[in-house]
Design a protein that fits this description.
The structure holds two protein chains of two kinds.
Chain A lengths: L1 H31 L5 E16 L2 E4 L4 E12 L5 E10 L7 E6 L8 E6 L4 E4 L20 H4 L7 E11 L2 E10 L1 H6 L2 E9 L5 E8 L4 E13 L2 E11 L4 E12 L10 H5 L1 H12 L4
Antiparallel strand pairs in A: 1-2, 1-3, 1-14, 3-4, 4-5, 5-6, 6-7, 8-9, 9-10, 10-11, 11-12, 12-13, 13-14
Chain B lengths: L1 H24 L11 E2 L36 H11 L2 H7 L1 E12 L5 E18 L2 E12 L4 H5 L5 E14 L3 E8 L28 H4 L3 E10 L2 E8 L25 E4 L8 E10 L2 E11 L4 E8 L4 E7 L2 E13 L2 E19 L4 E19 L5 E11 L12 E13 L4 E10 L4 E11 L4 E11 L15 E9 L1
Parallel strand pairs in B: 9-13
Antiparallel strand pairs in B: 2-3, 2-22, 3-4, 4-5, 5-6, 6-7, 7-8, 8-10, 10-11, 11-14, 12-13, 14-15, 15-16, 16-17, 17-18, 18-19, 19-20, 20-21, 21-22
The chains are: A alpha+beta, B mainly beta.
Chain lengths: ~290, ~500
Amino acid sequence: MKKNLFVTILLVLITTTSKAQNAKEIMQKVIDRNNGTTEISRVRLSTCRVIKEGKKYVCADAPRIKVLDMVRKDYGPKEKDHKTVSIIIEPASEKGIGFLQYDYEQIDKDTDQWLYLSALGKVKRIVSGNENEPKAGSFFGTEFSYEDMESIHIDDYTYTILGSETYHKRPCWVIESIPGKKRAQKSNYSKFMDWIDKKQYIALKSILFNRQGKKIKKIYNNDIETIDNILVPRKTLVFNLETKRRTYLVYEKIAFNKTVSDAFFSQRTLTDSVFRESTLKKYQSYLK
Amino acid sequence: MMYLIFHSRILYILITLIVCLSSVHAKSMFDSDDDMLFDLDENKQIKSETNSEPHSSFDDDPLIDDDAVFGDTDDFQDDESAAKDNPYYEQLLKDARFTLGYAFSNNLRVKPSFVTHETYLRSEIQTLLSENLFFQFDGRLNYFFDNDHRTQAQHKSALLDTHLREFFFQMGFEQFNVTLGRQIVVWGKADTQIITDVVSPRDNSDFIFIKLEDSRFGQLMLSSDIYTKWGNLFIFLSPKPLTDQEPEKGTQYDIKIPGMDQVIINNDALTFSDTEFGMRWQQSLGKTELSLMAGYFFDNRYIYHFSDIDFIRKKPIFEKIYHSYEMFGMAASYVSGAYLFKIETAFKNRLSFQKVDLDQLDIGAIEKDVVDFGIGVEYNANGRYQISGEISNRFITNSSEDLLFTNKNSTAIYTIFTKDFFNETLTFEYVFFYHVQEQNNFHQFRLTNEITDNFQMNVSCAFFSIKDKESLLWYYRNEDRLSVDFQYYF
């Protein structure tokens, strides 16, 4: 009997360990999924408070719309450092505001951000905030937080496969990610649950839990297409269960792996109008 | 052994049952409320990619009412073809932004009455005329109602006024650009004090109540930005530079210095021979930004000069003269975590000040060397709020005893607190200013509410506490004001 118990415990341990390793491997594949060395896109962000009408959630008020032209280029040996330029096209009140951002893979290296306020005609260095506590505030006033938009470092979390299930006809792993002590200190979330497509290694759905362990957001990736050999969800929905607000992030046009000049990711792009507009026009001719 | 096999079978049956049940009901084992359905707020149609590679479209997702999502319309193609077919003016209109505004303000201390009351239309155009030619225009048409202080000063029933802020053409090349026209140039890191930001003049006609971004206006300039790996160089030449726009005579903020109504004042505007020129070098080095500036300028403030006596009217004649000076400046910032540190300094050689010696009837300019210095810090509480503080000092290296309204040291402290609410649609801002030597201070509260994406309301209140009777601000001690501004962008 004792021998049987020992074998059972050993089996459970082996299975758990193997599952944990698998979960991390799966998430590593999700993180490493090719997202192109460069990306040129026009993004529409639409945010509103929702109410339930019958079975559907519909906007209770006129949605807030932001349209941005974005250009990204990856750097570094693993292409995990990103440089991004974002220019606001809509709404008219914010037209011309530009952002330049450098994100680094190195965990303790702060993001570099510059903001160009066309009304002031001045580039301002943005203070990203204290890295040791959670960041409040939202990404362009949407239900996405800045943390939702950050790249994930694989070692920041421990992963467990909770099980497998079919999600909208796609076989998925349901994987739980729990931030480690250091990450938990600065994260708004205590846990993530991701539905990872078994074939394409892409998250189809995510549930985010706040620091008190309560479900706070759901993120859905829809309309997943292969563009320039890159798998991309053209529509992402985030629903905040607490505020009852939702944001759609829609890639209206997108292109990957086109030639993008390094010089574009400099403050020159923010202030030199002729350089910015003529370069953007050239890049936008690649858009689909 | 049989026991183990029996239990394995039970486990197998249970798992099979769970899998079957979950398939039948399509419910998640892990998310009990995954039946949420969302409506797209707009029928934006997404182009289906037509690459040779087959799609991996999971378009059967019922989470979004997607019936109208895939269609024949191709937005991008439409935009492109529209741009090609459109007449040129339509492209101009597409690249334009208009702001229709209505603003009024009330004095809170003397008696509840309108100070300003206006409506305006602002037009901004930024368009690429050809591959390397860019055009920018920023102009405003103001209509002042009968109870606006500017209308009342002219004893009219209404006043119509135009204001051209910018009008320039920019040619782009590989490593540089050349800009010609009326343009605004912003220098320095300080947000509140003018230390190196001396190029573009400002509109002071409405005292401090014009927002900084609206107060600067352009002047005729030929300029060039040169981009090198050793930093960016900006050089400019401005013939016939413009100067600060002061409050018009008789308006609310026109300083009524006793005795000034007994003199004749002539304006001596700058001419094409009065040319300003300067340069700025700037470089970004990791977390540090550094810029160095140098130039020959005409002071944006005038100095009264006694020139003659009008014997017929029996009044002395004064002339407003703008004097030149040289400036060498430096500005730097360093970002670390939640903090941004800023420093800015300028040495102004031969800067002119007002000298008044009534005994000798010597009223004119006296040149002094000046060191302006500012230091500041911004703190971002991880998106919850932002607070910034700046302290600046003007030090006159020579004696200041013969100067009017001027101390040897002039120290000012600024604090700004900003907090956003409701997904950044409501912003609260509090500004505190304190002048150390004069012990004058003011508080300003501002609320900006984006009612819709294109409709914005700004409400601000300013309260002055002016203690120094010798200071210029003494004349504004009763100017507490409530200002309201509605703006519609299209």
